[in-house]
Amino acid sequence: MASTSVLSSNTATRAADSAHRAVDAAADAAAPFIDNLASRAHDTVDRTASAAGAMADKLNAAGEQAGAYGNRVYNSGINYVRENPLTAVAIAAAVGYLLSRVTR
Predict the structure, then answer these.
(1) Which domain holds residue 57?
(2) Per-residue H/E/C for the chain
(3) pLDDT for 44-97, tens place per residue?
(4) How many whole angstroms separate alpha carbon 86 and alpha carbon 36?
(5) How many domains does one find in the chain?
(6) Quick check: pTM over 0.85?
């Protein structure tokens, strides 16, 4: 009976060793694929970050341009009111009257 136990133990050990070799072979075979996939993922992240940075720069420049345009329009309005105060008051009164008629 002892020989059956030893035989079973040897068979189990050989099966485990075989399974370990199969797992190691699968891991070795998958390593290049995983490395390639990781490299491509890093490249994609780098390209995305670069594009996002460029877009942020463009949006920042557009925001600055819009702010400058708003300041020019504001200053132009201020200058018009200073140069034509009666006309500005008349325009404001007309706009107020029209808005009051529209909102009724």
Answers:
(1) 2-102
(2) CHHHHHHHHHHHHHHHHHHHHHHHHHHHHHHHHHHHHHHHHHHHHHHHHHHHHHHHHHHHHHHHHHHHHHHHHHHHHHHHHHHCHHHHHHHHHHHHHHHHHHCC
(3) 999 999 999 999 999 999 999 999 999 999 999 999 999 999 999 999 999 999
(4) 75
(5) 1
(6) no
